[in-house]
Design goal:
23% of the residues lie in helices and 27% in strands. The protein is an alpha+beta fold. The strands form two sheets. Strands 1-2-9-4-7 form a five-stranded antiparallel sheet, with no helix packed on it. Strands 6-5-8-3-10 form a five-stranded antiparallel sheet. The protein binds 2-acetamido-2-deoxy-beta-D-glucopyranose (NAG).
């Protein structure tokens, strides 16, 4: 093979690799929708989810940060449709701690109040923004991000859309300090001592 042929071949191969990456997401289904096993007759109710009603009405207001999901777990008709929502309620001064969604980007819309948001990309660069009512922000797939209602007096409400029926959430604080990762591993990783790690873990104990 000439070196030009080789170059062309490697271009084609890398183009295929890029297409494969771009298509990584929920699997396509070969039916219009998926009816769960054991469910025999469905009607419009199967495609309807009403658990966001009280959130949109604003009653009751939670006293701590609260996520209400509409993923395929809560709303089975989403199975196979590659979409889902989450409603995020922030009392004044509350935070949604740093976390990732392994299977989807997140498109957040601020419906009430204001939010400070940010994510860190794979070069460790932080991107932040102050969002007002009506603003949207996109958190790229898999990257660590957070949202914070810096206003101590006004609550905030955001609705997030996901390109997966089951985006998944990995909370960074819980993953590190509310599992049984060895104290020594964490102390070395955070360049600190075991006592500091144990004190962080204590705050998560059930
Ligand atoms: C820590 O994990 C336990 C067991 O999974 C859970 O019950 C508890 O709520 C978690 N604590 C926090 C603060 O997330």
């Amino acid at each position: 093979m000439s070196s030009n042929t080789l170059k062309l071949l490697s271009l084609v191969i890398s183009a295929f690799a890029i297409v494969k990456i771009a298509m990584a997401g929920d699997p396509d289904i070969l039916t219009d929708y998926i009816v769960p096993q054991g469910v025999s007759a469905i009607d419009g109710n199967f495609f309807t989810y009403t658990s966001f009603r009280p959130i949109v009405l604003g009653t009751p207001q939670p006293t701590a940060f609260k996520v209400t999901k509409a993923s395929m777990v809560e709303f089975p008709a989403l199975n196979g449709q590659s979409v889902s929502y989450a409603a995020l309620q922030f009392p004044g001064g509350s935070v949604n701690p740093p976390h990732t969604h392994p299977r989807s980007a997140e498109l957040l819309l601020v419906c009430q109040g204001s939010l400070q948001v940010g994510f860190v990309d794979t070069t460790n660069k932080l991107y932040t923004q102050k969002l007002q009512e009506g603003d949207m922000f996109i958190f790229p797939k898999g990257l660590v991000h957070f949202q914070y209602n810096a206003d101590p007096k006004t609550s905030a409400l955001a609705i997030s859309a996901f390109g997966s029926a089951n985006a998944g959430t990995v909370s960074i604080p819980s993953t590190l300090f509310n599992t049984s990762i060895d104290d020594n591993v964490l102390a070395l990783s955070f360049k600190t001592d075991i006592a500091t790690i144990q004190s962080l873990k204590k705050n998560f104990a059930a």
